[in-house]
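Can anyone check this?
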Amino acid sequence: MFAPKYLELPPGAIGDVTGNASRATKELVALWLLHVCSTGGGFGVRTGKSLKLVEISILPKADEPKRQEARVVLEMPVTEDMLNLGGNVHGACITYLIDICSTLPIIALLHAQGGSGDPGVSQQIDTIFHAPASLGDELKLITTSTTVGGRTTSARIDLWDTTHRRLVASGTQGKMEASKSKL
């Protein structure tokens, strides 16, 4: 397992997480999210702590039923620290959420297929902004693995404002295996 051994999930951390993924896969995804969003005082920690895992599923791909995909759903409220000067969620915050959250189905699928779940490092992130979200709005983040290969993986994500029933942003992320240090 690639997650830090010093972290432990709080009791009941995945108790309300639905979906057909195994308990071990759900725990690994939750542990990675805990590590990324609560370690130290770095960028986005406060925003990341607001993310709530709702569902983790491993499903047949719609277009290729013999292959699998992972789906992870999260929810969160829009808080003041996410806003730009105009009172809407800042584009950099949305891109941060795309980076973190679109990694989760990659972890889930890699683990479900017998791997360590190590997602690698970001290679590319594309973001399309559709509509604003404001303080107090509730967001639902629906992210799905696209490809999981030997050296590269990718996922897509839609961020929905469930308060106003509109798509806020969509994105894709490509990840690759981290290079070994040559030192």
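Reply from J.R.: I decoded it. The CA atoms of residues 14 and 23 lie 8 Å apart.
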